[in-house]
Amino acid sequence: MDYTKEYELGLGALAKHFNFDTKYQDHYAFYTLPGTWENGWIHEVHPCDGLFVASAWLTTQKALDYTMHIKQPCLLILCIDTGEITLTQKGKASRTLTPFTHLWINPGSPVRLTIPAGMHACFTSMLIFDSCIEAFLNATGYSYPIRIKDAACWRPQHIDTPNVMLVMEQLRWGVRGNRLPPPAYPCKAIELLCLFAHNLDREKQKRSRRSYVTWNDEKKLYRVKERIDQSPLSLPATEELCHLAEMSESKLRIAFKSLYGVTLNSYIRESIMKRAMQMLADDELNIKNIAHRCGYENAAKFSAAFKAIHGITPSEFRKSFGL
Are residues 69 and 196 in the same domain? Predict the structure, then answer.
Protein backbone atom coordinates (compact mmCIF):
# COMPACT_ATOMS: atom_id res chain seq x y z
CA MET A 1 0.00 0.00 0.00
CA ASP A 2 1.01 3.64 -0.39
CA TYR A 3 2.66 5.46 2.49
CA THR A 4 0.37 7.51 4.71
CA LYS A 5 1.17 11.12 5.60
CA GLU A 6 1.78 11.14 9.34
CA TYR A 7 5.13 12.90 8.84
CA GLU A 8 3.34 15.89 7.31
CA LEU A 9 0.00 15.71 9.17
CA GLY A 10 0.37 13.66 12.36
CA LEU A 11 -3.07 12.42 13.45
CA GLY A 12 -4.38 14.78 10.80
CA ALA A 13 -3.78 11.92 8.34
CA LEU A 14 -6.31 9.82 10.26
CA ALA A 15 -8.68 12.79 10.55
CA LYS A 16 -8.48 13.41 6.81
CA HIS A 17 -9.14 9.73 6.06
CA PHE A 18 -12.38 9.85 8.08
CA ASN A 19 -13.40 13.34 6.90
CA PHE A 20 -13.22 14.95 10.33
CA ASP A 21 -14.09 18.64 10.40
CA THR A 22 -10.78 20.53 10.60
CA LYS A 23 -9.72 23.96 11.82
CA TYR A 24 -6.20 25.39 12.12
CA GLN A 25 -4.77 28.10 14.36
CA ASP A 26 -1.02 28.77 14.27
CA HIS A 27 0.68 25.50 15.31
CA TYR A 28 -2.61 23.88 16.36
CA ALA A 29 -5.11 21.72 14.51
CA PHE A 30 -8.61 20.95 15.82
CA TYR A 31 -10.35 17.86 14.44
CA THR A 32 -14.03 17.19 15.18
CA LEU A 33 -15.85 13.93 14.45
CA PRO A 34 -18.37 14.14 11.59
CA GLY A 35 -21.99 14.78 12.57
CA THR A 36 -23.03 11.25 11.61
CA TRP A 37 -20.73 9.83 14.30
CA GLU A 38 -21.32 10.05 18.06
CA ASN A 39 -19.14 12.93 19.25
CA GLY A 40 -15.58 13.80 20.05
CA TRP A 41 -12.46 15.64 18.99
CA ILE A 42 -8.71 15.53 18.58
CA HIS A 43 -6.54 18.56 19.36
CA GLU A 44 -3.01 18.43 17.97
CA VAL A 45 0.03 20.70 18.00
CA HIS A 46 2.83 20.56 15.42
CA PRO A 47 5.53 22.72 17.05
CA CYS A 48 8.45 21.70 14.84
CA ASP A 49 9.51 19.37 12.07
CA GLY A 50 9.04 15.74 13.04
CA LEU A 51 6.92 16.21 16.18
CA PHE A 52 3.17 16.03 16.83
CA VAL A 53 1.48 16.03 20.25
CA ALA A 54 -2.25 15.33 20.51
CA SER A 55 -5.06 14.90 23.00
CA ALA A 56 -8.19 12.99 21.99
CA TRP A 57 -11.64 12.53 23.49
CA LEU A 58 -14.09 10.59 21.36
CA THR A 59 -16.82 7.98 21.12
CA THR A 60 -17.45 6.40 17.73
CA GLN A 61 -20.70 4.87 16.50
CA LYS A 62 -18.76 2.50 14.27
CA ALA A 63 -15.28 1.05 14.67
CA LEU A 64 -12.50 3.49 13.93
CA ASP A 65 -10.26 1.36 11.72
CA TYR A 66 -7.20 3.01 10.18
CA THR A 67 -4.00 1.63 8.64
CA MET A 68 -0.78 3.58 9.03
CA HIS A 69 2.15 3.01 6.68
CA ILE A 70 4.82 5.50 7.67
CA LYS A 71 8.01 5.68 5.65
CA GLN A 72 10.16 7.62 8.11
CA PRO A 73 11.53 6.11 11.37
CA CYS A 74 9.41 7.27 14.30
CA LEU A 75 8.01 6.50 17.74
CA LEU A 76 4.42 6.80 18.94
CA ILE A 77 3.86 7.19 22.67
CA LEU A 78 0.27 6.73 23.83
CA CYS A 79 -1.04 7.45 27.32
CA ILE A 80 -4.56 6.02 27.47
CA ASP A 81 -6.99 7.30 30.11
CA THR A 82 -10.02 5.27 29.04
CA GLY A 83 -10.82 2.80 26.29
CA GLU A 84 -8.70 0.45 24.22
CA ILE A 85 -6.66 0.76 21.03
CA THR A 86 -5.60 -2.36 19.14
CA LEU A 87 -2.53 -2.44 16.88
CA THR A 88 -2.36 -5.21 14.28
CA GLN A 89 0.64 -5.97 12.09
CA LYS A 90 0.99 -8.75 9.53
CA GLY A 91 2.88 -11.73 10.92
CA LYS A 92 2.58 -10.61 14.55
CA ALA A 93 0.03 -11.08 17.30
CA SER A 94 -2.33 -8.13 17.70
CA ARG A 95 -1.55 -5.82 20.61
CA THR A 96 -4.37 -4.27 22.64
CA LEU A 97 -3.37 -1.11 24.48
CA THR A 98 -5.30 -0.44 27.69
CA PRO A 99 -5.01 2.49 30.16
CA PHE A 100 -1.57 3.88 31.01
CA THR A 101 1.46 4.49 28.80
CA HIS A 102 2.66 2.52 25.77
CA LEU A 103 5.39 2.80 23.13
CA TRP A 104 5.09 1.82 19.46
CA ILE A 105 8.14 1.72 17.21
CA ASN A 106 7.41 2.18 13.51
CA PRO A 107 8.29 -1.13 11.81
CA GLY A 108 8.25 0.41 8.34
CA SER A 109 5.36 -1.82 7.32
CA PRO A 110 1.57 -1.21 7.52
CA VAL A 111 0.04 -1.22 11.00
CA ARG A 112 -3.71 -1.26 11.58
CA LEU A 113 -5.09 0.87 14.41
CA THR A 114 -8.57 0.01 15.72
CA ILE A 115 -10.88 1.57 18.32
CA PRO A 116 -14.00 -0.60 18.79
CA ALA A 117 -17.46 0.73 17.94
CA GLY A 118 -19.24 2.47 20.81
CA MET A 119 -16.12 2.67 22.97
CA HIS A 120 -15.26 5.94 24.67
CA ALA A 121 -11.56 6.60 24.17
CA CYS A 122 -9.51 9.31 25.81
CA PHE A 123 -5.76 9.45 25.20
CA THR A 124 -2.69 11.64 24.80
CA SER A 125 -0.20 10.88 22.05
CA MET A 126 3.24 11.97 20.95
CA LEU A 127 4.51 11.11 17.49
CA ILE A 128 8.22 11.89 17.14
CA PHE A 129 10.39 11.23 14.11
CA ASP A 130 14.10 10.54 13.92
CA SER A 131 14.62 13.92 12.23
CA CYS A 132 13.42 15.73 15.37
CA ILE A 133 15.64 13.67 17.67
CA GLU A 134 18.70 14.09 15.45
CA ALA A 135 18.12 17.85 15.23
CA PHE A 136 18.22 18.07 19.03
CA LEU A 137 21.33 15.88 19.40
CA ASN A 138 23.17 17.74 16.65
CA ALA A 139 22.24 21.16 18.04
CA THR A 140 23.30 20.34 21.60
CA GLY A 141 26.23 18.03 20.92
CA TYR A 142 24.85 15.51 23.41
CA SER A 143 25.35 11.80 22.91
CA TYR A 144 22.52 10.02 24.72
CA PRO A 145 20.71 6.77 23.81
CA ILE A 146 17.36 8.27 22.73
CA ARG A 147 17.39 7.50 19.00
CA ILE A 148 14.84 5.25 17.34
CA LYS A 149 17.36 2.39 17.30
CA ASP A 150 17.79 2.75 21.08
CA ALA A 151 14.05 2.38 21.65
CA ALA A 152 14.29 -1.34 20.84
CA CYS A 153 15.79 -1.81 24.32
CA TRP A 154 12.96 -0.01 26.13
CA ARG A 155 10.42 -2.24 27.84
CA PRO A 156 7.01 -1.51 29.44
CA GLN A 157 8.62 -1.03 32.85
CA HIS A 158 10.72 1.81 31.39
CA ILE A 159 7.75 3.43 29.63
CA ASP A 160 4.86 3.14 32.07
CA THR A 161 6.26 4.91 35.12
CA PRO A 162 5.12 7.81 37.35
CA ASN A 163 7.82 10.19 36.05
CA VAL A 164 6.69 9.51 32.47
CA MET A 165 3.01 9.92 33.30
CA LEU A 166 3.61 13.35 34.83
CA VAL A 167 5.17 14.57 31.56
CA MET A 168 2.33 13.03 29.53
CA GLU A 169 -0.18 14.87 31.71
CA GLN A 170 1.72 18.12 31.15
CA LEU A 171 1.49 17.50 27.41
CA ARG A 172 -2.20 16.65 27.61
CA TRP A 173 -3.17 19.87 29.32
CA GLY A 174 -0.73 21.85 27.25
CA VAL A 175 -2.51 20.76 24.07
CA ARG A 176 -6.06 20.96 25.43
CA GLY A 177 -5.80 24.41 26.93
CA ASN A 178 -2.95 25.94 24.94
CA ARG A 179 -1.06 26.10 28.24
CA LEU A 180 2.41 25.53 26.78
CA PRO A 181 4.25 27.72 24.25
CA PRO A 182 5.31 25.87 21.06
CA PRO A 183 9.04 25.68 22.01
CA ALA A 184 8.12 23.77 25.20
CA TYR A 185 6.85 20.74 23.27
CA PRO A 186 10.20 19.66 21.77
CA CYS A 187 11.73 20.05 25.25
CA LYS A 188 9.04 17.84 26.78
CA ALA A 189 9.38 15.31 23.94
CA ILE A 190 13.12 14.95 24.48
CA GLU A 191 12.53 14.80 28.24
CA LEU A 192 10.25 11.80 27.70
CA LEU A 193 12.83 9.94 25.63
CA CYS A 194 15.52 10.74 28.20
CA LEU A 195 13.29 9.34 30.95
CA PHE A 196 12.87 6.09 29.03
CA ALA A 197 16.66 5.80 28.65
CA HIS A 198 17.21 6.80 32.29
CA ASN A 199 14.67 4.25 33.55
CA LEU A 200 16.46 1.54 31.55
CA ASP A 201 19.83 2.59 32.96
CA ARG A 202 18.49 2.49 36.51
CA GLU A 203 17.11 -0.99 35.92
CA LYS A 204 20.49 -2.19 34.61
CA GLN A 205 22.14 -0.93 37.78
CA LYS A 206 19.58 -2.74 39.92
CA ARG A 207 19.78 -5.87 37.76
CA SER A 208 23.50 -6.19 38.44
CA ARG A 209 22.66 -6.55 42.13
CA ARG A 210 19.60 -8.78 41.87
CA SER A 211 19.29 -12.54 42.02
CA TYR A 212 18.55 -14.42 38.82
CA VAL A 213 14.94 -14.91 37.63
CA THR A 214 14.28 -17.68 35.12
CA TRP A 215 12.58 -16.90 31.81
CA ASN A 216 9.65 -19.11 32.82
CA ASP A 217 9.18 -17.20 36.09
CA GLU A 218 9.58 -13.89 34.25
CA LYS A 219 6.59 -14.74 32.03
CA LYS A 220 4.52 -15.60 35.10
CA LEU A 221 5.50 -12.39 36.86
CA TYR A 222 4.51 -10.40 33.78
CA ARG A 223 0.99 -11.85 34.14
CA VAL A 224 0.86 -10.46 37.67
CA LYS A 225 2.12 -7.05 36.54
CA GLU A 226 -0.40 -7.01 33.68
CA ARG A 227 -3.25 -7.84 36.07
CA ILE A 228 -2.24 -4.95 38.35
CA ASP A 229 -1.99 -2.54 35.41
CA GLN A 230 -5.41 -3.51 34.06
CA SER A 231 -7.32 -2.46 37.15
CA PRO A 232 -5.21 -1.09 40.01
CA LEU A 233 -8.27 0.16 41.92
CA SER A 234 -9.95 -3.25 42.06
CA LEU A 235 -7.13 -5.68 42.63
CA PRO A 236 -7.71 -9.32 43.51
CA ALA A 237 -6.53 -10.80 46.78
CA THR A 238 -2.87 -11.72 47.11
CA GLU A 239 -3.89 -15.38 46.85
CA GLU A 240 -5.15 -14.79 43.30
CA LEU A 241 -1.91 -13.05 42.31
CA CYS A 242 -0.02 -16.04 43.71
CA HIS A 243 -2.24 -18.32 41.64
CA LEU A 244 -1.50 -16.25 38.51
CA ALA A 245 2.23 -16.52 39.17
CA GLU A 246 2.03 -20.17 40.25
CA MET A 247 4.19 -19.22 43.24
CA SER A 248 3.94 -19.05 46.98
CA GLU A 249 3.47 -15.56 48.41
CA SER A 250 7.05 -15.33 49.67
CA LYS A 251 8.49 -16.46 46.32
CA LEU A 252 6.22 -14.04 44.44
CA ARG A 253 7.37 -11.09 46.52
CA ILE A 254 11.06 -11.99 46.25
CA ALA A 255 10.92 -12.74 42.51
CA PHE A 256 8.85 -9.63 41.71
CA LYS A 257 11.35 -7.33 43.41
CA SER A 258 14.25 -9.15 41.80
CA LEU A 259 12.78 -8.73 38.31
CA TYR A 260 11.28 -5.21 38.51
CA GLY A 261 13.48 -3.60 41.13
CA VAL A 262 10.55 -2.61 43.38
CA THR A 263 8.50 -4.54 45.89
CA LEU A 264 5.08 -5.84 44.89
CA ASN A 265 3.38 -3.44 47.31
CA SER A 266 5.38 -0.49 45.96
CA TYR A 267 4.40 -1.34 42.40
CA ILE A 268 0.73 -1.59 43.37
CA ARG A 269 0.96 1.78 45.13
CA GLU A 270 2.59 3.36 42.04
CA SER A 271 -0.16 1.95 39.80
CA ILE A 272 -2.87 3.33 42.08
CA MET A 273 -1.23 6.77 42.09
CA LYS A 274 -0.92 6.78 38.30
CA ARG A 275 -4.66 6.15 38.09
CA ALA A 276 -5.23 8.85 40.71
CA MET A 277 -3.35 11.35 38.54
CA GLN A 278 -5.67 10.56 35.64
CA MET A 279 -8.75 10.94 37.86
CA LEU A 280 -7.59 14.38 38.98
CA ALA A 281 -8.37 15.55 35.45
CA ASP A 282 -12.07 14.90 36.15
CA ASP A 283 -13.38 18.12 37.69
CA GLU A 284 -16.51 16.31 38.88
CA LEU A 285 -14.39 14.39 41.38
CA ASN A 286 -13.00 16.17 44.42
CA ILE A 287 -9.82 14.99 46.08
CA LYS A 288 -11.75 13.32 48.88
CA ASN A 289 -13.71 11.26 46.32
CA ILE A 290 -10.51 10.22 44.57
CA ALA A 291 -8.86 9.32 47.88
CA HIS A 292 -11.79 7.05 48.70
CA ARG A 293 -11.64 5.36 45.29
CA CYS A 294 -7.95 4.73 45.83
CA GLY A 295 -8.63 3.05 49.17
CA TYR A 296 -7.59 5.85 51.53
CA GLU A 297 -9.60 6.78 54.61
CA ASN A 298 -8.92 10.49 54.31
CA ALA A 299 -7.56 13.02 51.85
CA ALA A 300 -4.48 13.82 53.97
CA LYS A 301 -3.13 10.27 53.82
CA PHE A 302 -3.91 10.11 50.12
CA SER A 303 -2.13 13.41 49.45
CA ALA A 304 0.96 12.22 51.30
CA ALA A 305 1.04 8.97 49.31
CA PHE A 306 0.48 10.85 46.03
CA LYS A 307 3.34 13.26 46.77
CA ALA A 308 5.66 10.38 47.70
CA ILE A 309 5.18 8.96 44.18
CA HIS A 310 4.83 12.08 42.01
CA GLY A 311 6.70 14.71 44.04
CA ILE A 312 3.66 16.99 44.04
CA THR A 313 0.39 17.01 46.01
CA PRO A 314 -2.98 16.45 44.28
CA SER A 315 -3.93 20.08 44.96
CA GLU A 316 -0.67 21.35 43.49
CA PHE A 317 -1.17 19.11 40.45
CA ARG A 318 -4.62 20.56 39.79
CA LYS A 319 -3.48 24.13 40.34
CA SER A 320 -0.56 23.72 37.94
CA PHE A 321 -3.00 22.91 35.13
CA GLY A 322 -5.77 25.28 36.20
CA LEU A 323 -8.12 22.38 36.95
Answer: yes
What is the total count of domains within the chain? 2
pLDDT of 179: 80
Residue 134: inside a domain, yes or no?
yes
Do residues 100 and 181 share a domain? yes
Residues 244-267 as b/e (b if ≥16 CB within 10 A, e otherwise) read bbebeeeebbbbbbbbbbeebeeb
Dump pLDDT digits (tens) for 190-240: 999 999 999 998 877 766 555 678 888 988 998 899 889 888 888 889 999
**pTM for the structure as a whole:** 0.81
Q: Is residue 14 part of a domain?
A: yes
| CB-CB contact of 85 with 113 (8 Å) | yes
| Model confidence at 91: pLDDT above 90 | no
CATH number at residue 201: 2.60.120.10
CA distance linking residue 78 with residue 168, whole number of Å: 9
Length of the chain measured in residues = 323
Q: What are the tens digits of pLDDT across the range 94-116?
A: 999 988 899 999 988 999 999 99
pLDDT in tens, 150-174: 999 999 889 988 889 889 999 998 9
Which residue segment(s) compose the domain that 103 sits in? 6-205
| Distance (Å, whole) CA 129 – CA 137 | 13
Q: Is the pLDDT of residue 28 over 90?
A: yes
CB 55 within 8 A of CB 172: yes
Final residue of a structural domain among 205, 233, 259? 205
Q: Are residues 201 and 217 in the same domain?
A: no
| Residues 46 and 97: beta-carbon distance below 8 Å | no
Task: Please give the helix or strand (H or E) that residue 52 lies within, else none.
Answer: strand 51-59
Domain contains 1: no
Say if residues 199 and 160 touch (Cβ distance below 8 Å).
Answer: no
